[in-house]
Each structure stands twice: as structure tokens, then as C-alpha cells.
Amino acid sequence: MAGLLCGGHVPCTYVSPLLLNCSENALIPNPSSAREEGQIFILWGAETSAWRIGITSITIRVATLFCHHVPNEPPPQFTPLTLSEGSNQALHLESTLQDLPLYHFQIELGDLGWELAWVFEQNPLLPGAVLTDRGKFVGMLSRRRFLEALIRPHGIEFFLKEPLQVLYSYARSEILQLPGTTPILAAAHQALRRSPELLSEPVLVKIEPHSYRLLDIHTLNIAYWQIRGIETQVRYERTQAQMIQSDKMANLGRLVDGVAHEILDPVSFIWGNLSHVIDYSKSLLQILDAYEKHLPNPPVELQQLREDLEVDYLRQDLPRTIESIRSGADRLSKLATSLQNFCHIDEVYPKPANLHELIDSIVLLLKSRLTSEIQIVRNYGHLPPVLCYAGQLNQVFMNILSNAINALLNEAVSQQIDLDLKTMQNGGSHAPPFKPTIEITTQVRSLEVSRGGTFRWVSICIADNGPGLSPETQKQILDSFSVKKRAEKETSLAVSYQIVTAKHGGKLEMRSREATKTGTGTEFEILLPLH
Questions:
Q1: 110, 164 in Cβ contact below 8 A?
Q2: Torsion angle defined by CA atoms of residues 220, 222, 223 and 227, in that order, rounded to the nearest 10 degrees
Q3: Distances from the Cα of 215 to the Cαs of 93, 188, 200, 221, 484, in angstroms?
Q4: Pairwise CA distance, residues 55 & 53, whole Å
Q5: Considering only Cβ atoms within 10 Å of each terminal Cβ, which end of the chain, N or C, has fewer?
Q6: Which candidate, 57, 6, 7, 4, places its Cα nearest to that of 32?
């Protein structure tokens, strides 16, 4: 029958929670009381008053207790082990390693192996120890590596009596060291990329330049899956909200498209009858001229009526009135067509489109925000019809132009305030006026690709002469293009990036110059492949 055999030369007694008394070669018929494989224990020799340290090795038929005699002295005195509870707040997507429970325990390389064994026995959950040499960080020794060294042949007799420096030189392994500000998701990914023999090793967390903590890998894995569950829930809720919003926008698009269609119907009536009105007015004026030619002296009543109607003025104003009606009908027709194009629901497959017409329609829709101060410069090249999703590209042009207009309006207000202050201080001196400008340039470019050769692209550059973007703002925009950031929060530029790259296989590049450097402004270049 399996049992617990306490080997040694003197009777010994447990001071650990097992609380077993055994004599030399005594067999305790209680296999359930045996500890788990690799459990460190501390023994006190009752007759010799000496501490004994050992490790259990449980096999199929017998659980053997290996005792090792250590110097006759009381237990070592260490600085109390501390465990940081981490943040009291619930975990979220941005939680870092500092928000998790971390162990703070250091031991000098000159301390003996049995002293570290004492600490491990008193703290069963401690994953390892930070090793120092005269207070200077040296490395980390995990509980697992420590136990593996002890269960080697003669490991207990050799390593427990020697300084930890000897054991560390034998059990040294690669350490995963991460800053405390590392996100939990990123830390878990790095921990999982380690070699199989290191997957259970704790993570060394650097809190300050000379302060290190230990993170149990199981704690990290639990936190990782908790956050993954939160992320899945957030994505599900965001997907639901996006589906509702997409349905609303689709219904709104159909509504606007219907309104634009209803506008175009009466406009077409105006256009269809306007040519007849022009012909009729010309005919009436010709008849009037003929009457005046053949009746130079009409009756008094006709002369009075001619003066009351101001015939001479009507001859001059009637063509201008008809022309204004034509201009208004033309503008209303273009506006309604632009609304239809912008609200266009794309088909399953892309279709050829005239990009210049798409850009002009968006500029027309934004005309209410384009004050007389903002100038639109169009440098259109010769572009062939481009295979694209016209409705989605309209959204891209709208987003980029709206951002450019916002930047220019803010800069114009800021410069006007500065100008007013300088005028008050300098008594009438004026700085050169700021002329906000948006320049749209289109052309066909040939660019090299990574796999060799050249590829033809359609380039649409939208640039402004605003204040430009700081490096921090540029980094935030570029980060928003990543899949992770888009999942957390979608911005107008992030949506544009996805439309250009994912839906059209193109590129969206951003170039910006700060106001402190030579030249200012921000430029977005859209590159679409020519098929």
C-alpha cells in the first residue's frame, strides 16, 4: 500500500500545514495526506533541533519524502513578501500589467538555496524570485526552474547548501521582461510566442528603472481571456449599433434620393418649357417691333399703355430674366443630381465612373460651407473612367474635403483674431491676409510595386494651406487606420482608409507640414489602381 516514507537519521516533525509526525523509516498509511508532486516542505528535527528541507516526489505506488539536513539555525529573516492588488477598477481593453496582482520579492545571489526554499514553502503561490547582487538586478529564478534543479540526482544535497549564484548559473533561462505600461493583450501575445518550455514561466514586469515585479502566467492568461470576452461583447454591441446606423443611413439615402427625384421632375418641366418661352418672347418682341415700325404714331391710349408697361425696359430685362431662370434651373438640377449621386447605393460589383464629376458634385454639396474666402483650385488631368464604387468614393471625398474646410475655417478665425490684436497693439499695421485654399489635383501615375515592375494608378490629391498637423496628431490618425483602433472607434478618416484600401485595393497617404516649418498644410493622396 502506498504511503509516506520519511527518510533520515533522526526523528523529524512537520511545521508545515501537513503536520505529520514520523520516525526513522516509519510508514504513514495515509496516501491522501501526501502533497502534490514537487511540493517543498520544511522539517524540524526534534532531537537534534535542526531544520530539514525536502521535496515530495509522488509516484504511482509510493510517495517518498527526501529530507536534507541544513545548518542548525532558525528560519531566515527576509523582507516581507508583498503582493500588489493591482487596480480596483474592472479590466477593460486598455488595461495594462500594472492593473494585475504583482509579486514583489527579491533575494541576493549570495543567499543559500535552502533560504529560497523556505520562502517558497511559506508562500505556495509565489511564482519565483527576483535575483539581485548587492541590490542590483541580475535576473529571475522561477519556482519551476528551482524545483527542476532540486529533483536532479543529488540536486538537494548540492544546491541547497550552495549560494543561489550556483543554482542560477545552472537553471538560468530566457526572461520575458515587459514594462508595466504594456497592455495585457499585447503581453499575453508575447508570452504565448515563447518556446514551449518557457510557457509556464512568470513574466518580469519593470515598474520603475530599478523596481521589478513578478506576474504569474496564470493570472495573465485569466486576465487576457476576461478582456477578450469584454472585447467580443463590445464588438457585438458596436456591430449591432453599426447595423442599425447603416439601416438608418440607407433609409435616409433612399429618402433623399426620392426627394431629389421629385425636385428633378419640376426642374425638367422648367427646362422643357424654357426653350419655348424663349422662342415665344422673341416672337412677341418681333411683332412689337413690326407694329412700331408700321405705326409710328399710334393712338394716345396705346402710347399711354406703352409707357405704363415700360416696353423699352421689358425688351432689355426679359432676356436677363429668362437667363436667370435658366441658371437657377441648371443649378437646382446639378444639386439634385449631386444628391442622387451621393446617396447612390452601390451595386455588388464596381462600375466605371467619372471621378471629376464625383468631386464636382461633392464640392457643390459643400458650397454652403465654402465661404467666399475659401478658394477651390482644380488641377484636373486627363483621367479615364475608373472602375469603382461611386457612392463610397463620394463618402471619401466628402470626409477629406470636410476636414480641410474645418482646418481652414479654424485657421482663418485664429489669424483674424491675431490680426485684430496686432492692429490694436501696433496702431494700424496689417499683416498679409491669409487666403485659405483647397487644391484638388488629379493625374495618372506609374508607381513601382514591391513584387517588381510598374503599375498605373489614378492619383487624387486634396491639399490645403492650413496650419498642418503635429506629429502627435499624425500618429493618432495613422493609428486609427489599424484594425484594432477601428474596432474601438471609427473615425471619418478611418472609414475612408478602409473604403480606399479594402474595397478598391488602393492606397490613402497623408502628408502634413507643421506651421513652424517651411510651408504649411495637409495633403491626402488617394491612389486607385487602373484595371
A1: yes
A2: 130
A3: 19, 11, 11, 11, 25
A4: 7
A5: N
A6: 4
Q: Is the dihedral of CA 122, 126, 128, 134 positive or negative?
A: negative
Question: Is 312 strand, coil or helix?
Answer: helix
Determine the residue type at 289. D
- List C-alpha distances in Å: 253 to 238, 333, 360, 491, 497: 22, 18, 19, 20, 22
268: three-class secondary structure by DSSP: helix
Residue for cell digits 495585457?
184
pLDDT at 108 over 50: yes
Strands 12-14 and 21-22: antiparallel
C-alpha to C-alpha distance for 317 and 315, rounded to whole angstroms: 6
Question: Would the CA dihedral through 361, 364, 369, 372 be positive or negative?
Answer: positive
Q: Which residue has the cell 483647397?
A: 438
Name the CA dihedral angle for 216, 222, 228, 229, rounded to a multiple of 10 degrees.
-160
Residue 405, C-beta contacts closer than 8 angstroms, at least 6 positions apart: 366, 369, 370, 374, 438
Pick from 24-38, 171-185, 276-290, 491-505: least confident? 24-38
Is the pLDDT assigned to residue 215 strictly greater than 70?
Answer: yes
Supply 381's cell numbers: 488631368
Rounded to an integer, what distance in angstroms lies between the CA atom of residue 128 and that of residue 213?
10
Residues 178, 190 contacting (CB under 8 angstroms)? yes
| Phi, psi of 212, rounded to the nearest 5 degrees | -125, 145
pLDDT of 439 over the 90 cut: yes
Tell how strand 82-84 and strand 63-69 pair up: unpaired
Share of the chain above pLDDT 70, in %: 76
| DSSP β-bridge partners for residue 68 | 53
Backbone angles phi, psi at 483, to 5 degrees: -65, -40
3-state SS, 387-413, equals EECHHHHHHHHHHHHHHHHHHHHHHHH
Q: Look up the pTM and report it.
A: 0.50
Residue in the structure block whose three cell numbers are 468631386: 359
Long-range CB pairs of 470-474, under 8 A, 24+ apart, other chains included: 470/514, 471/514, 474/510, 474/512
- In angstroms, the CA 95 to CA 101 distance is 13
